[in-house]
């Protein structure tokens, strides 16, 4: 049975609202996606490629798999420290996990699993630091096999979401920014409260104040379709949410080879991406190109009448014109 969590955000909390990217979270959430594929069909192309990964099927490493196998809403808190930067590196996050104090490991395992701790994790209660060293090694190798090749594309999608929501917050305020955040989340500007519908029944403290600690918002590919939150000390409060545009993540790019000889491969790619309006910064994040280079290519496409700029507040969005759309019919 669902319950509702109410978070009180002070002016200080809202002033400290920020976004971050967490490769370690994507790693952990992707393992859950592989072990519970029925709930994550949107990732089917990736699932098909990695469903037989040694982390799931190989002998000798069940602890790296089982440590993510608790209740759907819970992970041991030390596994996913709150990231503080859009530039967070996987190695930095995993090093922080590896250095977790023994008493924190035991506390968080008890909170996540209670009396149902998998047998493979029992050694962590006796020698947490030694076991974490082994688990982190397994997780690094899993990352290299399954996520490293796709990470530039995933990261570009996450950064595009951050650009969009930060701009929305600046131009329209928190109520508008949270309006299309997730169906399970609503923001009441009059009271300064976030209400989150939780799948975790019987929350011990359904009314919480962030007490000026701020809030970090983390877009995620593998969180889909759910919200995840962590507000307990000592962590900085964090909400992880499904990234915008997740449905396009594993799509095969449209074939623009027939346009490339006319426009060049980069302009053909940008024209294809402008199926939905986007800013220069969003396109730069998605393609890995420098914003200045993207701007120059967009100017040429606009001169040809294939795209047109549309100002929204202080941001200019580009979209294909009817002439541009006609190239795809």
Structure description:
The chain is α/β, with parallel strands linked by helices and 329 residues long. The strands form three sheets. Strands 3-4-1-5 form a four-stranded mixed beta sheet. Strands 2-6-8-7 form a four-stranded mixed beta sheet. The model has no long low-confidence stretch (mean pLDDT 85). The chain is built from 16 helices and ten strands. It folds into three domains: 3-19 and 173-244, no CATH class; 23-153, no CATH class; 253-326, Winged helix-like DNA-binding domain superfamily/Winged helix DNA-binding domain (Arc Repressor Mutant, subunit A, Orthogonal Bundle). The longest helix has 22 residues, at 151-172.
Q: How does the SSE layout of this entry go?
A:
Elements: E1 3-8, H1 11-15, E2 18-19, H2 23-35, H3 44-50, H4 54-57, H5 62-66, H6 90-98, H7 102-113, H8 122-126, H9 128-146, H10 151-172, H11 174-179, E3 185-188, E4 193-198, E5 207-209, E6 216-220, E7 228-230, E8 238-242, H12 260-263, H13 265-273, H14 280-287, H15 291-303, E9 307-312, E10 315-320, H16 322-326
Parallel strand pairs: 1-5, 2-6, 6-8
Antiparallel strand pairs: 1-4, 3-4, 7-8, 9-10
Strand order of the largest sheet: 3-4-1-5
Class derived from helix and strand content: alpha/beta
Termini separation: 48 Å
Question: Overall 3D geometry?
Answer: globular
Taking the sheet with the most strands, its summary is:
4 strands, mixed
Note the total helix count.
Answer: 16
